[in-house]
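TEACHING EXERCISE
Course module: macromolecular assemblies
Task: Read the component lines below, then compare them to the predicted structure of the full complex.
Student: A.B.
Group: 4
Components provided:
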Amino acid sequence: MPLLENGQIVADGWTLVQDDQVLPDGDILVPLSRLSEGLGRNGKGRLGVVLTPDARVEVLKEALPRLDLVCLTFPIFRDGRAFTQARSLREHLHFAGAVRVTGHFLPDQYEFLLRCGVSQLVIPEQSDLTVWQKAHERITVAYQPSVLNEKPEGFGFRRFLSP
Amino acid sequence: MLRVAIPYGVLSAAQMRTLAYIARRYDRDYGHFTTRQNIQFNWIRLEDTPDILDILADAEMHAIQTSGNCIRNVTSDQFAGAARDEVLDPRVHAEILRQWSTLHPEFTFLPRKFKIAISGSAQDRVAARFHDIGLLARPGDNGRAVFEVYVGGGLGRTPIVGVKLRDDLPEEDLIAYLEAVLRVYNAYGRRDNIYKARIKILVQALGLDAFRDQVNAEFVAMDRSRYRLAPKVVEAIRARFASPVFEDAAAAATQLAGQVKADPAFAAWVGTNTHPHQRDGYCSVTISCKPAGGIPGDVTSAQMDLLADVAEQYSFGELRITHLQNVVLGHVRQDRLFALWQVLAANGLGTANVGMITDIIACPGLDYCALANARSIPIAQKLSQRFSNATLQHEIGALRLNISGCINACGHHHAGHIGILGVDKRGEEAFQITLGGSAGEDASIGQIIGSAMSEDETVDAIARIVDTYLVRRKPGEHFIETCRRLGAAPFKDVAYATA
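Instructor-supplied answer key:
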């Protein structure tokens, strides 16, 4: 499925490892249950982990310096736990790697995702990128701090969002 | 249905005229004020909504976050900035919370809807203890606000009185602390069952202490400097809520006293529909949207235009919608009340019943709502008619009567001194009566007194309950006080005593 990053479709070099699969070489994305196995892997390549919405991001605290990607999951767009997970990863755990989302989310949520610290989105095949671009550009003002550290400008909490 | 946001219930005369225009042009010539201080239009065609949203935007209004599992319209005291008993103007922080909660990136897909109310008076007029978060503001040291924070209150299927989470939250931490509460809720609130997804269920499941520990852990871990509410931000917003320029109205009270003496009907209206103001010679006026036999909260477009006119003539062009579904003019000169009352009375808006038994809260019920088990409006109209006699109402005194058409409790029946709950009894509409609820500082949940009755039986039963109160009350005792002193038994006996 296409991977959206910085407004562009980019190549996805990561391999999602299934539960019963032997860990391959290369950049791999493992479920949380196989994190220690992934960390102990001798093969070359980067490591990422997939979190389900009920996982606490604090469990990654020790491993995080050795991870390059954390992938969060939307079972359905209404399940907004990934927003809090993303934000906690950035704000509390100061994770500087990629935060990816996968599953069912909507273009309407794009700006929220970015402002919570998500940097990569797995979007459906044949997605119209202009829809995502419009969703990003539609709202130009925000009223709360976000992990993007937009500079307050104007009255009250107002800050302008970058296009 | 299209529900339009009215932040903390405050709107301008021009905005009210916009709502009147929408009602006239796109709906059936009326709108319905809601218990979240918003307005909803029940007969909007889907294909008209883009045009309506454009019209609203031109009047600086919108419908964002009036539905969905997000932070809903922040409600506040309808007498904010005017009430004599106010210790702090809650609109300033209500506006701060409006800004903060609007299109919040993290909290727009919560387990369930989230309602915040804020009061700045010792007397709780916002039902703070029946909100997901209720805030009671008071002045602290160095002139900055301090908040008492209640959490986990609510009505609906599981009515719960909110519990105190913090006694002394400093103003600068208001946003940080609410972020922490919402973050705990978003992460751990139940999502498997919508009836168990409100924050009250999480607070009950964890217990208050464990919930508070979670919030505190989040609060300590976060970089609070990012969320700090700086004095200059607060002051910039406070400047937008500066008091209007009041005239010298020192002689106004004397003139009013003479008019009250001369006209008993006017006197009755002044007695029930005005509220003490901070400025001598002024008062706040509650315009009742509950005429005898009327539908609670419904206002025609002609009435909306009239409300806009009187707001301009009598109250600096500003109006407030109350969570009791009435309309308030915040600052009216006492010597102009008589003229105002005459205009209102001539247009079906002069009913003298605020706080009385016919000042009924009712949800839209089965007439409009797909969830309802019973129609709320006909029984509200019958009760309103039954108790319409002004002398009788004044004899009964303060009595809150709330009606919900189903257990989702949009009519706040648990918080009524008398509550009515519509149920489905073997395919027939029927009604249960609750007694002893209150939404104020003494918040309590009304208890069901017995099995459901038909609409007419319920109206008669309530008449007998009220009669019993009139016979058994001690001098000066309000209905709720008699009810608490005697317990439900004597009222239950008469409710089911058919001749």
